[in-house]
Amino acid sequence: MGTGERDQEAHVSEESSGAGRTSGGDAAGASRAAAAPRTLAEALRARSDASLAALLHARPDLLTPVPNDLTQLATRAGTRASVVRALERLDRFALQTAQALAVAPDPAAYSVLLALLAGDEGDAAVEDALPGALAGLREQALVWGPDERLRLVRTARELLAPSPAHPSPTGLGPTVAEATAGMSPGRVQEILQTAGLPATHDPVSAVAALTSLFTDRTRMSALLDTAPPEALAVLDRLVWGPPYGEVSADPAPPVRWLRDHGLLLPTSARTVVLPREVALHLRAGRAHRAPEPVAPAVAPAKEYKPRVVDSAAAGQALTALTMVEDLLAEWNEGGPAVLRAGGLSVRDLKRTAAGLDTTEQAAAFWLELAYAAGLLASDGEADERYAPTPAYDEWLELPPAERWSRLAAAWLAATRTPGLVGEQDVRARTLAALGPDLDRSPAPEVRRRVLDLLALLPEGTAPDPETLLDRLRWEHPTRTGPDDLRPRLARWTLAEAEWLGVTGRGALAAHGRALLGAGGDGETPGGRRPSATTAPLLGLAAAAALAPHLPEPVDHVLLQADLTAVAPGPLRRPLAATLNVLADIESKGGATVYRFTPASVRRALDAGQAASDLHAFLAAHSATPVPQPLSYLIDDVARRHGHLRVGAASAYVRCDDDALLDEIVADKRSAGLRLRRLAPTVLAAQADPASLLEGLRAMGYAPAAESAEGDVVITRADTRRTPPRTAPAPVPEGPPLPDETLLGAAVRAIRAGDEAATVVRKEAPRTAPAEPGGLPRTTAAETLATVQAAVLTGSALWIGYVNADGAASQRVIAPVRVEGGFVTAYDHTADEVRTYPLHRITGVAELADDPA
């Protein structure tokens, strides 16, 4: 950081600072400063390392980049963007506490703040909750100072204090001093006289006398006893805000009486305002009409036995796996095309929903879930289409419980929001499934918070959704409004958790609790989340909790005479894969019904199976004898399969039976293929091989494709895969939460930088003193001699250093070796060993106390 910047930051005023060390500060912090801090930097300097780490964790934007010292940290903590972000993360009572401080005198005593929140009559709940709320504001560097001199940072006061342009949420107006700032001294004296107060010799004492009257409960009550009833009615309309009212040029007598007595003060020719002191008297001292010190409880809606919830959730988890598998199996040979703007077309979404036998909204959820888990992506070809990724094949090989945990973990962390599909963005464009504009940063936090609140309820208890939404509004009051997405995200979370099997019958299942970690401790937003190393462990724990509730896969089906097969449960992977090719799924549920058709049998033959293979497969996996109609069907299709051969000429058909070729040519349905005979056993077509195959199959034949060498081409259903793709990275809301390692390193770096900036230095001999906050200046010879001496004595030095980019900085180093024009030293500022060119060191100075 440059010298001028440091000089500017070194003079941070009290109003731009924000964290204290009392009423919640630790003993270590109290021992660091004997007197009350005068600035935020001093307050932060008195904190312990653990307290600084808590600040950086609560406000991670302060870490980008890591501040050079505590003065810079204090300045950054008082910037508007950072303060706004911190205020947005306050719960309702913490915000009400900050709002009360914004209308209190600056600084304010704890007793004054308590009176503003609890009122003249007191409130036990407020008294119990206020210390915790104040400690939270201090931890986030929004409030600082001892209990006798509490200060709200200047930026927060500007944001929360009442003004005509930005009314305060408290509904209070300006103070008497603020409202009379532009009033003539004569008019102020007239108000004193009308109110029964003696005249004063100057406006300042007059305003003080008027303020004293309005804050004296006894005298104020006596004054209001003389007011007309109509005047009191006017005050009742203004007391809880907004405090401003319009008046005519000749106001009514009640308004004139209030204005003459200073209970309403003019702000313009047509506007009056109720002074803050008057409003507080009428409110019995309360800054808020209804303080909310206690978070609203999430009320239970229904209660079930935990095993019932776990069983229901496990059944839905199995359905979720089936949905994803069916979706991607349908797209095995290539899915729908990607829109030019990205995403899936409305028509393709409807077709997908029909194939999955679900609603379009649910289909969008399954699509986005597969995409978030990295199982689905676009292939990147010129004719871009969606297809499964290679990770899908790896996922299929996992046990069912682990497959579910991968999906659930991806859903929990994803910022993709499928609930928005079908709505319009700010440019009136419809948002498409798998499109580029579905990321919403708050989604992961809202999902986890909703599940945390469910985890606070007794096991087997489903919540009342409205009370859950009330709780979320209390936790994030600044974000509520008509455009707030959080209530909708919470409702979508409840629905999606049920679809996915995280909840059963609305209650959080045991494997859902395991997915959250520590049983879901319900920590508040902004709390610590699972790290990259613990998240996989939580996934394994969730899989272990789910596995006992999943039915064991079966290795047999029940073949029936009507060409159907019934699977009495989930099938083992090889059996299910083969049966999905050999038969079509007719219905799903507790038991899946498959139907054998000529087309499905031909599909199996196209995949390289022979009729004998199919007979052996069915005999091995059927718990009942293979019905004769099914055997006849397989033999009949196999007898005709491959009788016709289609290859590439543009395309040709060859067959040893020339009568069959005559039949095809004579068929009117073949006119579109434009066939002509080249030889008794060969027909040529002006269609490509794929279209020719499709056309002949539509006519009822069973042709087989062949290669240029004349071999039958085997087509498998799982040949279409995208190149390797990574799952889409979530788009976080603000900077990511730092881990313990980063927090520790940042605190050490800030402490070292602060020590370098504030340490007492010895005067360097024969050197002009540096300007306050500037870099030390010594000659090259003096620099070399001082550094060499420090190597011998093991002492630390304060140096000025200019890097290759010309950026100047101050550092505290402990030199280890000097050779070749370089000094190798342990840099206390960076907390690592570094090498510095001597010619880039502007000067050195010995430290009065060795920081090591």
From TrEMBL:
Residue intervals of the Helicase XPB/Ssl2 N-terminal domain: 557-679
WYL domain sequence ranges: 782-844
Pfam families, per database record: Helicase_C_3, WYL
Compositional bias of kind Basic and acidic residues: 1-14
Span list, region Disordered: 1-34
Keywords annotated in UniProt: ATP-binding, Helicase, Hydrolase, Nucleotide-binding
Single GO MF annotation: helicase activity
Protein name: Helicase-associated domain-containing protein
Species the sequence originates in: Streptomyces crystallinus
